[in-house]
Write a structure and sequence with these properties.
By secondary structure, the protein is of the alpha+beta class. The chain is 31% helix and 24% strand. The N and C termini lie far apart (36 Å).
């Protein structure tokens, strides 16, 4: 499965992950960095630990769904307000 997705080489940052701590990011020279969501115009929409944990949660949930034989299900994270509107 690992070979079925691209493996891009980052030029200015490093991303790592552990089962117990989720994602972490640093600059290429080891300084702390943050994960962010950036729109098409380059605006930072959200950044920080919440973004890293939301991304981690989505990755874990989709993997668990796959292991449980539920197929390649889509998993989303969004603002609570958007989730409640979608459920209505």
């Amino acid at each position: 499965m690992k070979d079925s997705v691209p493996s891009p080489q980052l030029q200015a940052a490093r991303i790592s992950a552990t089962v117990s701590t989720g994602f972490s990011a640093t600059t290429a020279d080891g300084r702390p960095a943050r994960l962010a969501i950036i729109d098409e115009a380059g605006n930072v929409i959200e950044a920080g630990p919440e973004v890293a944990w939301a991304a981690w949660k989505v990755c874990i949930e989709v993997q668990e769904n796959f292991w449980e034989g539920q197929g390649h299900l889509v998993v989303h994270r969004s603002p609570a307000e958007a989730r409640s509107r979608a459920a209505a």
